[in-house]
Design brief:
The complex is a heterodimer.
Chain A (H helix, E strand, L loop, with lengths): L3 E7 L2 E7 L5 H8 L18 E4 L2 E4 L12 E3 L12 H8 L9 H14 L5 H7 L11 H13 L2
Parallel strand pairs in A: 1-5
Antiparallel strand pairs in A: 1-2, 3-4, 3-5
Helix pairs in contact in A: 2-5
Chain B lengths: L20 H5 L15 E7 L5 E7 L1 H5 L3 E6 L18 E2 L5 E7 L2 H10 L1 E6 L6 H5 L14 E11 L2 H6 L3 E8 L12 E6 L6 E5 L4 H12 L6 E5 L11 H17 L3 E4 L2 H7 L2 E2 L2 E9 L5 E13 L5 H11 L8 E10 L5 E2 L6 H19 L3 H8 L19 H12 L1 H7 L7 E13 L10 E7 L5 E5 L8 H13 L6 E3 L18 H5 L1 H22 L6 E4 L2 E4 L2 E7 H10 L5 E6 L6 E2 L4 E2 L5 E13 L4 E12 L6 H21 L4 E2 L2 E2 L17 E7 L16 H4 L1 H13 L10 H6 L9
Parallel strand pairs in B: 1-12, 10-11, 13-17, 15-16, 20-21, 29-32
Antiparallel strand pairs in B: 1-5, 2-4, 2-6, 3-5, 7-16, 8-14, 9-10, 9-12, 14-15, 18-28, 19-20, 19-25, 22-23, 23-24, 26-27, 28-29, 30-31
Helix pairs in contact in B: 6-7, 10-20, 14-16, 16-17, 18-20
Classes of the chains: A alpha+beta, B alpha+beta.
């Protein structure tokens, strides 16, 4: 099968990959680029464990064809900490006990980041809506929302 | 004892951050599906899709001949393996839709799928049974030849206390009720995965897996490979949630990957899709709960009789253990002089039931805590007063005639919750509402035997090793499932040793590194499992103290340690660092490590009568839920949940809150949205688009009330919490719905149809 050449930016670095036309972005990130922080939980865009940020939007990478990523800028969980420093959301997740098993955590952090990048003064309800595409079975979301709310308030 | 806050510890009782949090927020924690090895193949399973059938003929020739296919195995290739779950890695006798009839190893996941499609199977279909009633009907088809009438005999547990006939004769009000619960999926976000890696030199098979119980997984792998257990090494990868679900199912996939790896000589990965995960993993048992209960006019409960039947599905995953716990707790948190309980499982051709957070308690409490209110209403009594009149107290005898010698603070908890939620005022106000949206408030109380109790052996071991730089490695055969065990154990070791938590590192389970310490289940990890950690750390502390005394030039009795500094008690300026003591210890050739074993006391419980001490101690809970029911649609919106739990000692309040919030979410799903729908064994809810677990937007306002008490049984007085956190939530919501609508929900879930119409339009209209 003929492969498609795709040039994209992943975590600020230019990347060129050759992918099958049906390859999911999720698989290319995990298998080709070794970025296994992005998880697969359902494969149908319901759980949000595979969330990455594409040009500022949080997207389920299991529903995206890698071949459509030409020229796109993609951020995964591996690109969230910069220069050895945690992103404020990562730090807040640790301090607020916003994770348990951790499998949904990368996706939640991606959604939280995309949400806060676009929303300056969100209410608690806004935050709940912002992360409602990310399922978590451990935490009941309360400490997750606490963590995001704290970072949002610091942004003021 | 009041709410959290009056205990005095250095490292316990503190919201210490999770020791595994950094790896998890960076996305570098390695889950089983993240692993990759050179030459790795992918494994896959062909499932029957039928509920009851015999494999008449299976032809794998085409699949085997395909490019990139390295192995195809069917039942005939595994003659000697027995499995530990009474269901097989591969079978020729299909008892439910998820049964596997062939397995494949191939170079890519795509080739695996093509090969599975190329396998030709002819089935001889058989009539099946699907509901408890069908299973128990006369001349019903049998699911297992060894189980006449489809009754799983070994899962029968009775309780016989007093004489219920005499008890009912003393009652002025007697009611009989029947309740039903549904199949529930664990819905951990990580589907099961493993990679089996063969060692061509010494023949060891290493399986990196998403096991809740790696030692349990080891049995399966040794069984399928027909080798000694010393040639099997299971390494638990970071686990993406389990809740009781990654036990038998992971044993089976680990076994399949191992046999494929052995046959091909290459590493084999099996990672389930969500659909396969839902098909393969066990579910929370559906129960049919028939109760008869009676009280005097004054409100004293005199007798309770109950017959509980659970739907085990096609295979027995722990029904025979779980029903013991069910029998012990069937009468609820009440002191009743005459009790007769029988619990038994039946086999059907459905997905199989197994361990799931609560291990029968959410089902029982859903029934029991509505029953108690139904009886109070018949008596014309206030449900709170009625509960308190009959509640277990310190010194009470439980249904198994166990005297509660440790403190019981249930009444205080009820009073606190009732007051903080304004329960009584709201309950009265909500009785008279107009308009389509009606609010309701409900309460439920619960108790739970801590650890395994008389169900199984509650022993465990632990190793604590000091290193020359003053850091410490700890290990245990109990595992981190996401609940926070590594953090709790690190805190416990820190508390004993007197060194900061940051200096302690918990290895995580590799079955070659430490003895089998039993399963990480039954909310036993902290309360019982860490006893060995405390013991080992305590012994090491004493050993190191001798060296410290030498260095301080004083007597060992005068040495103490705080925050990693040893000092002389009357003269704290005479001090030496823990790290310097460890260094001297090593270069003096003295002992650096302690392995300790903890054996629980004998409980003396008679399983034939259900009488005796069932558990070392009990934790108690009380939950209040407030809902708004849209009586035009049947939609139940859970607005507020307040949860109070007696945890004995709060090892880590932040982690405790996390357990409680998560428990509320899972309890809410159980109450109103979740149901694995089965239609003649076929599963209709195979992914998270149809199996609906709560999202962040569904969550209510939550408040947690953490109670402590002085309990002598658990480690540092800690009691179980993981399962209590979810078990009473469904019952509280059911009682709240009644307060809002005046209609009882006796069959879960309380979805639109049941709330609006009083019955389901699916699954036979129950």
């Amino acid at each position: 099968m003929e492969k498609i050449k795709v040039n994209m930016k992943v975590n600020s670095k230019p990347v060129t990959v050759e992918v099958k036309p049906y390859a999911r972005l999720l698989d290319v990130l995990r298998e080709e680029l070794g970025l296994t922080g992005t998880k697969e939980g359902c494969g149908i865009g319901e759980c949000g464990a595979c969330t990455v940020i594409i040009d500022g939007e949080n997207v389920n990478s299991c529903l995206v064809l890698a071949a459509s990523m030409e020229g796109k800028e993609i951020t995964t969980i591996e690109g969230m900490a910069k220069d050895g420093r945690l992103h404020p959301l990562q730090d807040a997740f640790i301090r607020h006990n916003a994770l348990q098993c951790g499998f949904c955590t990368p996706g939640l952090l991606m959604s939280a980041k995309a949400f806060l990048d676009k929303n300056q003064n969100p209410t608690r309800e806004d935050i709940k809506v912002g992360i409602s595409g990310n399922l978590c079975r451990c935490t009941g979301y309360e400490q997750v929302v606490d963590a995001i709310e704290e970072v949002a308030n610091k942004n003021d | 004892m009041p709410l959290l806050g009056s205990k005095n510890y250095d490292y316990l009782n503190k919201p210490v951050p999770r020791v595994d949090a950094l790896d998890k927020v960076l996305g570098r924690a390695q889950y089983a599906a993240d692993l990759k090895f050179p030459q790795m193949l992918y494994g896959g399973m062909l499932r029957s899709g039928l509920s009851h059938a015999k494999v008449a003929k299976i032809d794998v020739a085409k699949a085997k001949a395909m490019d990139g296919v390295f192995e195809v195995l069917t039942y005939g290739d595994l003659k000697k393996a027995k499995s530990w779950a009474n269901y097989m890695y591969i079978t020729d006798t299909v008892r439910y839709v998820g049964d596997v009839v062939a397995i494949v190893a191939a170079e890519t996941p795509e080739i695996v799928q093509d090969a599975l499609k190329a396998i030709q199977v002819e089935y001889q279909e058989l009539p099946g049974v699907y509901t408890i009633e069908e299973a128990l009907a006369k001349d019903a088809p049998l699911v297992h030849e060894g189980a006449p009438d489809n009754i799983f005999k070994e899962s029968h547990f009775p309780v016989r206390k007093g004489d219920v006939e005499k008890g009912f004769a003393q009652c002025e009000v007697i009611i009989e009720r029947e309740y039903h619960t549904q199949y529930i999926e664990h819905a951990y976000i990580e589907p099961e995965a493993c990679v089996a890696v063969p060692d061509p030199i010494d023949g060891t098979m290493t399986v990196f897996s998403s096991s809740q119980n790696p030692y349990f997984t080891r049995r399966y792998v040794a069984d399928i490979l027909q080798c000694g257990m010393h040639k099997v090494r299971i390494v638990q990868q970071t686990l993406g949630g389990s809740f009781g679900g990654k036990e038998e199912g992971v044993g089976l996939i680990a076994g399949r990957a191992a046999i494929l790896a052995q046959k091909t000589g290459r590493p084999v990965k099996i990672a389930l899709t969500r659909e396969e995960s839902i098909l393969e993993s066990s579910k929370r048992h559906p129960f049919r709960l028939k109760y008869k209960i009676g009280a005097t006019r004054e409100g004293k409960i005199m007798a309770l009789e109950a017959e509980l039947v659970d739907n085990s599905g096609a295979y027995n995953n722990q029904t025979q253990f779980m029903n013991f716990r069910a029998a012990v707790h069937t009468a609820g948190v009440y002191e009743i002089p005459n009790v007769k309980v029988d619990v038994v499982g039946v086999f059907t051709n459905n997905i199989h039931s197994g361990a799931m957070r609560g291990y029968s308690s959410p089902q029982i409490i859903f029934a029991q805590e509505q029953l108690i209110e139904e009886l109070a209403e018949e008596l014309g009594m206030n449900p709170i007063e009625f509960r308190k009149l009959n509640a277990l107290k310190t010194g009470s005898l439980t249904a198994t005639s166990q005297e509660l010698v440790e403190p019981v603070i249930l009444e205080e908890m009820i009073d606190t919750l009732v007051q903080k939620t304004e329960y009584s005022k709201k309950r009265e106000a909500y009785k008279n509402q107009s308009g389509p949206k009606k609010r309701g408030i409900g309460i439920a109380t619960c108790f739970r035997g801590c650890g395994f109790g008389a169900e199984s052996v509650d022993a465990s071991g632990a190793t604590v090793t000091a290193l020359e730089d003053g850091t410490v490695i700890i290990n245990s055969g109990l595992v981190e499932n996401g609940q926070g065990l590594k953090t709790a154990y690190s805190q416990i070791a820190a508390e004993v040793l007197g060194v900061p938590v940051e200096r302690i590192h918990f290895i995580g389970v590799d079955t070659h590194s430490i003895a089998d310490c039993g399963m990480t289940v039954a909310s036993r990890g902290t309360v019982m499992g860490s006893q060995a950690m405390k013991k080992a750390a305590g012994e090491l502390k004493e050993i190191l103290k001798k060296t410290a005394a030498e260095m301080l030039n004083t007597h060992v009795d005068k040495v103490d340690i705080k925050d990693g500094v040893y000092f002389e008690v009357p003269n704290p300026k005479n001090k030496v660092f823990f790290s310097d003591v460890c260094n001297k210890q090593l270069w003096s050739g003295r002992q650096m490590s302690v392995f300790a074993w903890y054996e629980p006391k004998n409980l003396n419980y008679d399983h034939h009568t259900g009488q005796g001490n069932a558990f070392p101690t009990y934790s108690f809970g009380c939950v209040v839920a407030e809902v708004e029911v849209d009586t035009e649609t049947g939609y139940v919106d859970v607005l507020n949940v307040a949860a109070g739990h007696d945890v004995g000692t709060a090892v880590n309040p932040a982690l405790i809150k996390g357990q409680i919030y998560g428990g509320i979410a899972m309890g809410m799903g159980f109450a109103i949205t979740e149901e694995v729908e089965v239609n003649k064994g076929k599963v209709g809810t195979l992914n998270l688009d149809t199996y609906i677990i709560p999202t962040s937007m569904d969550m209510p306002q939550m408040s947690t009330l953490i109670f402590e008490c002085d309990d002598k049984e658990g480690t540092y007085g800690a009691k179980s919490l993981g399962e209590p956190a979810t078990e009473a939530v469904g019952a509280a919501i059911a009682n709240a719905i009644y307060n809002a609508t005046g209609r009882r929900i006796r069959q879960l879930p309380a979805d639109l149809e049941k709330v609006l119409l009083g019955k389901s339009l699916r699954g036979g209209g129950k």
